[in-house]
Design brief:
Elements lengths: L14 H12 L1 H4 L3 H11 L6 E5 L2 H11 L7 E5 L2 E2 L3 H6 L3 E5 L10 H7 L4 E7 L8 H11 L2 E5 L7 E2 L2 E2 L6 E5 L12 E5 L2 H12 L6 H17 L8 H11 L26 H12 L1 H18 L14 E2 L4 E5 L3 H10 L12 E2 L16 H9 E5 L6 H14 L2
Helix pairs in contact: 1-9, 1-11, 3-11, 9-10, 13-15
The protein binds pyridoxal-5'-phosphate.
Length: about 425
């Protein structure tokens, strides 16, 4: 039986990942083998020419460390885009700096260069360029503009592992970048991330920050290892009398499953894992994913190409991608005027599409005052949030399922 179409339910886990999670859960030697950390860092660094890689327990921890490595703190401003997750402004606030939101470009999902220029002040220390959905943002323009003004540029490659611009890996254009191995990223170990830097001194600072942390307690690690395992029961039964849905809620309530963003983060408090090192147990999951990343990304590209070709001429607005780019297509975004209706019709047909990002700053309901975002300040991003739908590209999606999604969009998008 095929897995049902569900964009966010442990999307790149297959039976081998589940088997690995079981064996790590029950093997102390695998969980405590720290050699795996340098192996994983080495494998990742091969994707980023002449860069150093320092592992972290999440993408937001990586961003937190990078900002500290650049001595960004009280009184400093960091420009980020609206149409993002609180995971991006969080670390800026943790170091005592101010997140300044720039709007996104029209019909695009990344930062608008002209709007960035308007937001620069003498206090601007850094600009974060987010390659949303793995589609390259205007990194070359921002890097050359920032150089003149002595502003640091950080690439947010949380969605973009394996993406390229002009045959060069995203993550190698700016001073530094971050990646994420979160549960629904291109490469996943449930929690995890890394800083990618070109400067040895920065790398040493980042290592020192990370070494000061403690290993996560067993219970936390076990909770993450249970993620692929429990989802292997939740997914097949998700639409069978709603059994999977009930299991998901029960497992979350019983704290057997973690959340990608903890509830306390919505009001600006730090998540637990910020105090932890990247666990060797999670690196055991990541090494397996690294072995198949090229195949997974090739499948994502194949699926995205089908959407682009077969939805061309439909009512859905397709993402504009210039010829010299090779997105990683974590998800394939389209804009429709009747977002809620299309999402509803999809659910009626047991298809779970994605809602990144259904507001300028997600999760919806986060304390916008805490995150210093004023509603109405980034009108393009807010409009995009009202119209966007994400189509899945995860590797196990079958060709027939892709056809079903295309038919759904053609029928219902207006
Ligand atoms: C655009 C973006 N940047 C950074 C992050 C942070 O990654 P992590 O969840 O690993 O902390 C996320 C997380 O979803 C994200 O969507």
């Amino acid at each position: 039986m095929n897995r049902p179409i569900a964009i966010s339910l442990s999307p790149n886990t297959d039976s081998k990942d589940v088997a690995r999670a079981w064996s790590v859960l029950f093997s102390r030697s695998l969980r405590e083998n720290t050699d795996i950390l340098s192996e994983v860092a080495h494998l990742i660094s091969k994707k980023f020419d002449n860069r150093f890689v320092v592992l972290n327990s999440s993408g937001r921890q990586a961003l937190y460390d990078l900002l500290r490595a650049y001595d960004i703190g009280l009184g400093d401003e960091v420009i980020i885009q609206a149409f993002t997750c609180i995971a991006v402004p969080e670390p800026i606030l943790w170091v005592g700096a101010k997140p300044v939101y720039a709007d996104t470009a029209k019909d695009a999902y990344s930062i608008d260069v002209q709007n960035v220029l308007k937001k620069i002040t003498p206090n601007t220390k850094a600009i974060i360029v987010q390659h949303t959905f793995g589609i390259p943002g205007p990194i070359e323009e921002i890097v050359s503009m920032a150089k003149e003004k002595n502003i640091i540029v950080i690439e947010d490659c949380a969605h973009a592992f394996g993406a390229e611009l002009n045959n060069r890996a995203l993550g190698t254009f700016a001073d530094a970048s971050i990646i994420s191995f979160g549960r629904d990223k291109c490469l996943s170990s449930v929690y995890g991330g890394a800083c990618v830097v070109k400067n040895r001194e920065q790398m040493e600072k980042l290592r020192a920050f990370h070494n000061q942390r403690k290993q996560p307690p067993f219970m936390w690690t076990a909770q993450q290892l249970l993620h692929p395992i429990l989802f292997s029961y939740i997914i097949p039964s998700y639409f069978t009398f709603g059994i999977g849905k009930v299991l998901l809620v029960l497992f979350q309530r019983a704290q057997l499953l973690s959340r990608a963003v903890e509830l306390r983060e919505r009001s600006g408090r730090k998540p637990l894992h910020i105090e932890y090192q990247y666990a060797p147990a999670l690196a055991q999951l990541l090494v397996l994913q690294l072995g198949k990343i090229d195949a997974m990304n090739a499948r994502r590209k194949y699926i995205a190409d089908r959407y682009a070709q077969e939805l061309f001429g439909s009512k859905a607005v397709l993402p504009a991608v210039s010829q010299n780019t090779q997105p990683s297509w974590l998800r394939f975004p389209v804009l429709v005027k009747n977002q809620k209706q299309v999402m509803f019709m999809a659910r009626e047909k047991n298809i779970l599409l994605g809602d990144w990002y259904d507001s300028a700053l997600v999760p919806k309901g986060s304390n916008l005052i805490e995150f210093q975002y004023s509603l109405g300040s980034c009108s393009v991003a807010e409009k995009t949030a009202e119209q966007v739908i994400n189509l899945p590209t995860y590797p196990s999606l079958t060709d027939t399922q892709v056809s079903e999604i295309i038919a759904l969009i053609k029928t219902y998008a207006s």
